[in-house]
């Protein structure tokens, strides 16, 4: 008998953004840049939980420490003391969820490479569509790779181009002519902190400032509050920013149309982040309000799929005047693997991870809202648990349109064959989930929640991508 088994993980039924990047350039001797990066990565932990890394520059050497696990697990007190030694002025950090490459420490970031100008460290959020062909191309030129991720490809090409270019910025811009896909980069040299957003601005990156004049780069603005920084601006699509002790310089290297990932506003980003001028919390509240406009259901209570559906559910409640309540409680502390020695316990797997609040749902008609539906496996568990707890009817709504296409631009997505909406009709999906009504937010309404700007990649909903996948 197999004693240890995997519990059903509701988070595995979500799209996964692959990474978060962070960088600090200190103008003051009082700042511990390694510790600021540590706090910043904590704030970005939702963007990646498989590995974490920090690289620092002490003006002579670049030192990098990284490992598998959460930020708090990787960076012990001893490791932080090593990174803080000599009071370095520049640091970058990275948290990872793998979309390309396996879960090994070799694939953890940042990557450090040697160049003619000294060592540089690179951290990357995104995914290249031509990483494999570039890897093979540069292998033939004698370049060696120690990992299986595209971030190392970027770092090595930058180092290669720096052999002929005068500045690190020129080498990076030349690299952008070779790589294709989605990327937000932070690059550390002995005396510079550099940030870059891909030509379409698919992945987010923003700039913050501390009261002493020090600067911070981050995937999301939510990391600024944890470090005491104030938001300054978003790095624009096709823009490179260089921070030195003397100044901050920006340069536009591409004029491609803006196509940032619209799923940041649905699920990826923390609700307290503002990306490209749009607050994620307010956007999700608006998604719920427009859900009611498109699906004006009558019920006793609006509840959320924990916890990603909370804000859309609040918006639906505000628009419908139906009370918002708690219907499902998620156990946050259970490991993915635990002892289940009997068939009876195997069948109760879902209740070990999730419990309906019976006193709140029994005998009621419920509107259950989730941020999106991907495979649909968690959806049917939610409905099953609620009905077993005595709910009369469960109306299920998705605060995103039907997910019909996979993403290859920095999101860990299932194959098209595993996407429920790509393979079933609305009626078939409703039957599989077991709900009494199933509805989705329209793509038109999702755009309304993002100020009606025609500047988003919505490939997972429409199959139209700003960058073509390499065959």
The largest sheet, given as strand count, sense and whether it forms a barrel, is: 7 strands, antiparallel
Strand content: 25-35%
- The helix fraction, in percent, is 25-40%
Which class of secondary structure composition applies to the elements? alpha+beta
Shape: elongated
Strand count: 27
If you average the pLDDT, what whole number results? 91
Distance between the termini: 44 Å
The DSSP helix count reads: 18
* Order of adjacent strands in the largest pleated sheet: 5-4-6-3-12-11-13
Low-confidence stretches: 1-7, 336-341
CA gyration radius, whole angstroms: 23 Å
Fold and architecture overview:
With 471 residues, this protein is of the alpha+beta class. It is 30% helix and 26% strand. The strands form 8 sheets. It has a 7-stranded antiparallel beta sheet. Strands 7-8-9-10-14-15 form a 6-stranded antiparallel beta sheet, covered by helices on one side. The radius of gyration is 23 Å and the shape is elongated.
């Amino acid at each position: 008998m197999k004693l240890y088994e995997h519990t059903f993980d509701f988070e595995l039924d979500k799209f996964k953004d692959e990474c978060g990047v962070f960088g600090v350039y200190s103008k003051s001797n009082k700042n511990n840049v390694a510790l600021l990066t540590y706090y910043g990565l904590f704030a970005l932990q939702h963007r990646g939980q498989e590995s974490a890394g920090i690289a620092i520059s002490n003006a002579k050497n670049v030192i990098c420490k990284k490992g598998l696990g959460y930020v708090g697990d990787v960076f012990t007190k001893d490791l932080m003391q090593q990174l803080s030694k000599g009071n370095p002025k520049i640091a970058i950090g990275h948290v990872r969820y793998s979309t390309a490459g396996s879960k090994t420490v070799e694939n953890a970031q940042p990557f450090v490479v040697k160049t003619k100008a000294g060592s540089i460290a690179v951290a990357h959020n995104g995914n290249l569509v031509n990483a494999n062909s570039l890897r093979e191309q540069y292998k033939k030129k004698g370049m060696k790779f120690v990992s299986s991720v595209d971030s190392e490809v970027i770092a090595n090409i930058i180092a290669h181009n720096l052999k002929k270019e005068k500045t690190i910025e020129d080498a990076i811009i030349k690299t952008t002519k070779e790589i294709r896909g989605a990327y937000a980069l932070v690059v550390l040299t002995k005396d510079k902190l550099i940030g870059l957003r891909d030509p379409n601005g698919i992945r987010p990156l923003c700039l913050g400032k501390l009261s002493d004049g020090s600067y911070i780069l981050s995937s999301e603005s939510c990391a600024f509050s944890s470090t005491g920084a104030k938001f300054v601006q978003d790095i624009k699509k096709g823009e490179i920013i260089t921070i030195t002790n003397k100044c901050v310089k920006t340069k536009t290297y591409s004029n491609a149309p803006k196509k940032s990932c619209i799923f940041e506003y649905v699920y990826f980003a923390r609700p307290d982040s503002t990306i490209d001028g749009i607050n994620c919390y307010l956007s999700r509240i608006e998604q719920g309000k427009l859900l009611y406009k498109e699906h004006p259901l009558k019920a006793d209570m609006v509840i959320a799929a924990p916890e990603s559906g909370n804000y859309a559910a609040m918006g639906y409640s505000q628009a419908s005047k139906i009370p918002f309540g708690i219907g499902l409680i998620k156990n946050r502390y259970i490991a993915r693997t635990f002892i289940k020695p009997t068939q009876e316990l195997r069948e109760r797997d879902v209740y070990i991870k999730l419990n309906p609040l019976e006193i709140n749902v029994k005998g009621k008609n419920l509107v259950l809202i989730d941020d999106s539906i991907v495979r649909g496996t968690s959806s049917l568990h939610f409905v099953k648990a609620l009905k077993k707890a005595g709910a009369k009817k469960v109306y299920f709504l998705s605060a995103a349109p039907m997910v019909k296409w996979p993403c290859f631009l920095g999101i860990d997505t299932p194959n098209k064959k595993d996407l429920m909406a790509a393979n079933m009709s609305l009626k078939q999906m409703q039957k599989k989930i077991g709900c009494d009504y199933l509805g989705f937010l329209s793509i038109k309404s999702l755009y309304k929640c993002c100020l009606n700007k025609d500047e988003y990649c919505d490939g997972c909903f429409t199959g139209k991508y700003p960058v073509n996948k390499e065959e």
